[in-house]
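Before a colleague's protein record goes any further, I have to sign it off. Thanks in advance; the entry in question is below:
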Amino acid sequence: MQKEAIIVFIKSPDRARVKSRLAESIGKERARILYRYFVEDLLDTLTGQDVHLRLYFEPHDAKDDISRWLGKQYDLFPQRGADLGEKMKQAFEETFQQGYRSVLLIGSDVPDLTAGIFKEGFDALSIHDALLGPSMDGGYYLIGFRDETFRPEIFEGIPWSTNVVFQKTLEVFIALGDVVHILPAWRDIDVIEDLKALMHRHGESPFRQSRTMRYLVSQKDFIRQD
C-alpha cells in the first residue's frame, strides 16, 4: 500500500455554488465552466504523482454527479462537519485511519500548482512535523501532516474565510511547539484580478496549454479591463 496520500476538496459545480465572487464579474455559467477546468487541470497534475488521491466532495449526496463528471477512477468521500475546519479534520482522520503515513490536503482554487510543490511537501514531511502553503489572500492552499504529528486542534478556533487564516494557524503550530515547513506562496483564483494575474503569469509557461488557459484565451473579452 502507498504510504502517501493527497486529499482534494472539491464541489459539484452542478449541485453547489462555486466561485461566487468570481461569478459576480463573469457570470455564474462561466464561473462553473472555469471551476470544472480548475479541478480537471489540478487532477491532471496530481495523477502524475506516485501517491493515492482521495477526493472529498460536497454536497454530501453528490457522489453520482462527481463520478459522471470525473469518472469512476477516484476514491470519493463526502465532506463532513459544520465548518471548513471540521471538514478538514475529519478528512485527515479518516485518511490516517486507512494507514497512510504522510498526507497533504489541498483545495481546488489553485489549478496551476506544479508537481514540484507536492514533491517538496512530502520531502519536507520526512523531517518536519507539518507544512503549510500560504495563499496570497492570507489563507493557505495546502496543509500536511505525518500520522504521528497530526494535530486535530489546529483546525479549531480559526476565523475561516478571512485574511488571517494562515497567520492564526501558524500561531497555533508555534504554540504547540511544532516545526512547520512553509511552502512557496501561491495565488488562489477567487476574483477577476486573480484571473488576470493567472493569464499574465502563464503567457509562456507550460500551463498555457491547460484547459483553464485555453478557455480564458478563448473568452478573453470578459476579463479585459483597459
